Protein: Peptidase MA-like domain-containing protein
Organism: Paenibacillus terricola
Amino acid sequence: MIGRDTEGTYDARDGIIKVYTPANLSDETTKRNFDQQIVHEFVHLIIQRINPDVGHLKWLDEGTAYYATGQLEEEMQSKNRYFDIPTFEQFADPDYFDKAHGAAYFYSGLMVKYITDTFGPDTLNDIIRQPEQEHMEQLLSMPLDQFFTKWHDAMLNK
Ligand SMILES: [Zn+2]
């Protein structure tokens, strides 16, 4: 699912986490990625238990998993400029993850981090519990496209 040696899935239908186990876990980076992947899938499990509707909002689902696991933090440290920040149309496209691959995880994670940094973790919690657009706009105090522009500008100035 992301550009690493480890891969995993959480399937809400059978409630089972599957993580590909690399043949050799003696390499420190491989081991850390593997551990993060397990936690990443576990975050999906928790989100699904709280509200299965989040599964329809891939940026929120994947962004929260990527952010909460520390995968985002690690990727942020390896980049000093962001070249491929999506437009609102790209980000809102249901196929964004298929089209952008790893970048989709990165920018979704940055969006979740931005919401958390700006409004606090309780607001992220509220969004996950009730992710309907109207409720989200109420929590963010503005229409989603306007909020996206604010985030986009903040990312450009990184
Ligand atoms: Zn995921």
Observations:
- The pocket of zinc ion is lined by residues 1, 40, 44, 62, 65 (CB under 6 Å).
- The two ends are 26 Å apart (CA to CA).
